[in-house]
Amino acid sequence: MTDFHNLIADAQAFYGKLNANNAKPWWQENRSIYDDNLKPKALALLETLTPALEKITDAPIKSKLFRPHRDVRFSKDKTPYNTHLHMMWQIASDAPQNPVFFFGIGIDYVSAGAGMMGFDKAVLNNWRKMLDLDTDRITRIVSGVEAKGFNLREPTLKRVPPPYPQDHPAGHLLRMKGVVARKDLGQDASLPDALTSSFSEVWPLNDLLISIAAA
Prior knowledge:
The chain is of the alpha+beta class.
């Protein structure tokens, strides 16, 4: 069984140094730390959490470790490597769009969360219609997740989209074009238990998003 005790500290130490030396020569000289330590533990963590998430969601789960190389084709920032370790677990339901659970270790953060980064057009329409029709229930679910320490990403839109009134009781949520809730786990988080607990707490949000996507 993989020991995840030092994963956070090891990742932050590695990415801190990479941040100061974000170039191919440094990466090639030090990539064994990623290949032999960080990547195997990250893959093991993905595998370890999958059965727990399948139990929570009652659905198949697909996991993904994000690649270390940045896509710089359309970015002004041409530094070649990501300075974080990010992974996700996607729910494989029959809905046309499915939410994810995610975990990330950066230089100055350790966070977990869930949601949909951006709604497909049909899901966005469903989201707005359901917010209008079932405002109390949806805001209650969102408030429950926030009460567990999760913070929702700020809305994309500055104003409530028509035809909904600007003083709509769910105006803050109507201005969103995707919903993501994130929670700081802290540097001393005990993995994988902290993730299992956090994903259980935020599951009501993903459950809501599945039902809205499938409506």
